[in-house]
What we know:
An eight-stranded mixed beta sheet has the order 1-2-4-3-5-6-7-8, sandwiched between helices. Helix 3 (79-95) crosses helix 4 (108-119). It has helices at residues 37-48, 67-75, 79-95, 108-119, 158-170, 198-217, and strands spanning 3-7, 12-17, 25-29, 52-56, 101-106, 124-128, 145-152, 176-184. By secondary structure, it is α/β, with parallel strands linked by helices. A hairpin with a 4-residue loop joins strand 1 and strand 2. It has a single domain (3-217), classed as Rossmann fold. It is globular and about 40 Å long. The chain has six helices and eight strands, in the order βββαβααβαββαβα.
Amino acid sequence: MGETVQFNEGKASGHIARAGEGAPGVIVLQEWWGLVPHIEDICQRLVGEGYTALAPDLYHGKSTVEAEEAQHLMEGLDWGLAVEEITGAVSYLRSQGCSKVGIVGFCMGGALTCLGAAKANVDAACAFYGFPPDPTAVAGECAPTQIFFGENEDFFSVPDAQAWATTQAESGKASAVTVYPGAGHAFFNDTRPEAYHKTSAKDAWGKTLAHFASHLKG
């Protein structure tokens, strides 16, 4: 179902699920919980769609199911180092024969996905309920990016993400923000019944697969 690999000269590691020789790649970025089974499951879903998926372990072995500890782990994350490790993960997939590489992330990983779209040499990006607190960090040339929020988002700025996506689209990048009525933060996480919003999750996943098919398989 997957294995652990090292990259960045052995200084970083992650969970990889392989789709076969010549498949495009997708980097999968964790929520603030860490590299938990839900993220590994998303990797496996992507394998079923014909992608080799790699989830970097940005907490270096730590994970939790407690929100207070998750917040502590996120606050302790070196975001600059995380972007370096994401960039290294992209390079690793390319070294494994993935000529095109996308990136998808959730919550904290959604914000890092947008940074990856700007800095990690990816071909496409999809961010679920996350955006960098400082929009200037993603100014300039970025990969085509789709961002998904529930209308009851209470962690990240939807207007900032919408303004950024509009600028992206105006520069010729296929970027947009979709906001789902009735959904809130973490609406895609089917391991959290209090947050999961099935119809929104299904639509966002369909849009994600279409975006990746266009930019990674096209």
